[in-house]
């Protein structure tokens, strides 16, 4: 089978740490081009912008966009207009309206569009989904608490308008719970704590209810020192489930049931290859929609200034 | 033909001023019940909550929800679960996630769900859409400026978290532009001015671009004294269009082309009857999605306190 000829747009940390190894390990893909203003890669054709790649004689079937979200819509639209399949890093856009436009554009052109949520491919997530599918959820607690100074040093954009603040990591939690919970859920109220010298929240508490009335409480914190937590606990009528380490470990009633090596990005590329083969798309905006709902509905309180 | 037996839920100002006359004038509907905590209507069965109506022997085919947005999802879900068609006043919910749930629920049960945007039925809107469909848009200016003290006296909820502030009227403008413009458009940046003693914006400036690159500028103001403006101006390659008075008047190159009596709510009920007859739904969330995008992406600045 001829491999899918892939161009990677954006060669930052996530591209080097995750995308390049996953592509190299998957024989269904052949990396044929890098698009990056400044960076390049030995042995791979390099272009400083997507327009130059599309005008060149390098043949490309698909494009993976690893740039920040702000320019992503224009790049994705350009790639789809040129007949290329598109993978979007998370979040799939700066606004929901532009993601909906990409979804419609890809559908109209029968191209594959994949809005990726890498945390959904964490080891514990699929067994958690299967286990919960047969049970009734009573209550959910999401604790997503990390030290922004450790994990996002110098990332000033995260604090700007549209930068999402603590929702930048917490959208991973939302991508997991929207996958594993058997019923949809809706925000009832929220509180966003925004540092007086910043635009985006540094902490948040969100109260959702699922369609069966079960409470879902999310506590998000960017100022967590000491032990970090990326944990989701689900009480059901048939036992207690816990996902820890961002979904890498699954516990049932205190027993560790699943853990394994990180296969998140290989999982994304496996899905991308299958979607292309099937002529299908996967554009689930539910995690970003919950974030937008939180910004729309929540109360804002002023937090102390954040100085890195 | 047997009329559609309709229950009206919520008997506030919008129900009395708009829904009751529109229902009375449309022979395809028969008002069979009022659901309201406090208010009732001579000659129509009255229930204090929807559960009581659904448990009664009053036969109902469809429900129109005129309550505030916060409880609307629970009511709509209950009505759909009981096999009733549902009309939602604008905005269709407090969050996008709950509207998506209603859309899926209605589709799964083959029931009609109508998310209404009454301004889309203003006299000038449909001719504006037809005129713009044949032209290329160069620039759009939205000026939605009204005096909150005149139009929303005592409506404290409008200032609370989720109350939308100046977007409560401005979502009408967004419902019109999402209908009349030939291309989709996306928010690039925004500024929300939030009074220091309130949660919701009192003024906003939003900069969008359409898929062809044309700039769309929206200026929203809740502090407009003197002449009020609910105007949309569209520059095209074939002349200038202007909608004024919230869409009631259409001007082309300065000439008044269309004006007419207010037919917005009769238009909504006409569409509701046709959707039910066709077994179809109309759940366009684009206006609310743009509002959520504005809350997600915009910079916030502190405005002077608002004291009514």
Automatic annotation (TrEMBL), chains A, B:
Its EC number is 1.1.1.48. Keywords: Oxidoreductase. InterPro entries: Gfo/Idh/MocA-like_OxRdtase_N, Gfo/Idh/MocA_oxidrdct_glycsds, NAD(P)-bd_dom_sf. Residues 4-114 form the Gfo/Idh/MocA-like oxidoreductase N-terminal domain. SUPFAM superfamilies: NAD(P)-binding Rossmann-fold domains (SSF51735). The keyword Kinase does not apply. GO terms for molecular function: galactose 1-dehydrogenase activity; nucleotide binding. PANTHER family: BCDNA.GH03377 (PTHR43818), DEHYDROGENASE (PTHR43818:SF7). This is Galactose 1-dehydrogenase. It comes from Caulobacter segnis (strain ATCC 21756 / DSM 7131 / JCM 7823 / NBRC 15250 / LMG 17158 / TK0059) (Mycoplana segnis).
């Amino acid at each position: 089978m001829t491999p899918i000829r892939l161009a990677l747009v954006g060669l930052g940390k996530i591209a080097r740490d995750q995308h390049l190894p996953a592509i190299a390990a998957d024989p269904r893909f052949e990396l044929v081009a890098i698009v990056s203003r400044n960076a390049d890669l030995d042995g791979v054709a390099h272009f400083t912008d997507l327009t130059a790649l599309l005008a060149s004689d390098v043949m490309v079937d698909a494009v993976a966009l690893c740039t920040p979200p702000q320019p992503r819509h224009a790049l994705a639209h350009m790639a789809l207009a040129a007949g290329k399949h598109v993978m979007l890093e998370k979040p799939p856009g700066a606004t929901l309206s532009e993601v909906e436009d990409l979804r419609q554009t890809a559908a109209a052109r029968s191209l594959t569009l994949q809005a990726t949520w890498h945390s959904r491919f964490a080891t514990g997530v699929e067994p958690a989904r299967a286990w919960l599918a047969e049970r009734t959820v009573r209550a959910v607690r999401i604790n997503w608490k990390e030290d922004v100074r450790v994990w996002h040093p110098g990332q000033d954009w995260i604090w700007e308008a549209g930068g999402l603040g603590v929702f930048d990591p917490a959208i991973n939690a939302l991508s997991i719970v929207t996958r594993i919970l058997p019923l949809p859920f809706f925000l009832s109220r929220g509180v966003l704590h925004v540092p007086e010298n910043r635009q985006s929240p540094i902490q948040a508490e969100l109260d959702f209810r699922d369609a069966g009335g079960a409470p879902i409480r999310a506590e998000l914190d960017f100022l967590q020192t000491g032990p970090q937590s990326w944990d989701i606990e689900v009480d059901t009528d048939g036992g207690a489930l816990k996902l820890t380490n961002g979904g890498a470990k699954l516990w049932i009633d205190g027993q560790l049931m699943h853990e394994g090596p990180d296969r998140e990005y290989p999982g994304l590329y496996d899905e991308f290859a299958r979607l292309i083969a099937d002529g299908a798309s996967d554009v689930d905006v539910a995690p970003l929609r919950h974030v937008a709902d939180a910004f729309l509905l929540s109360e804002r309180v002023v937090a102390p200034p954040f100085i890195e």
